[in-house]
Amino acid sequence: LSVEQLFPKERVECLLLDSNDNLWIGTAASGSFMLHRNALTNRFFPNIEGDKQYTSWSMFDHLGNVLCATSNGIMVLNDSSYLLPQTKGLFCLVGISVDPNTILIGTAKEGLFKWSNNQLEQVYFNSENAFDNIIVQLVPYQDHFLACSKHGFIELDQKGNLIQSTSYAENGITPYIMHLKALDSGFLASTTT
Questions:
Q1: Which of 34, 44, 86, 99 is most buried, judging by how many CB atoms fall within 10 Å of its CB?
Q2: pLDDT tens figures, 93-117
């Protein structure tokens, strides 16, 4: 079956295979669906809080839980789904688990945050270039992490602390990296201008 057959009216934004090999499908308007790896069953997790509905931009696995970056914060998807209180109001695009107590969060306009021990800290913001605050990808690389903005790369240590940022503009042209995959000897990136 295709996504179009299963979810004909949904705009799929992200897919995740969790640590239990269940397939998660995040949609633009409705919420997230979990397709169980063995049973022919699924579950639905609406991205709704009160009377507001939020877009699912990406999902990631953290301590066996699936977390969803939404347009109103990080939502924990389980029987009693909820937004992490400290992230409420952040337009989150991506997230990644750093360690049992820490996640990194990339936002649509406020840069990069670290949520650790129930505290939220901004670890990167560029006051001179708004495109550098649109974090579109977070990937583990060797013993640290790499964030990709629409302006450059942001390197973070194994605890999520800022090491450096680097622009990838050449000859006045800035390609926007939309997806980044770490390889053994570098990276594979898809870009647009």
A1: 34
A2: 999 999 999 999 999 999 999 999 9
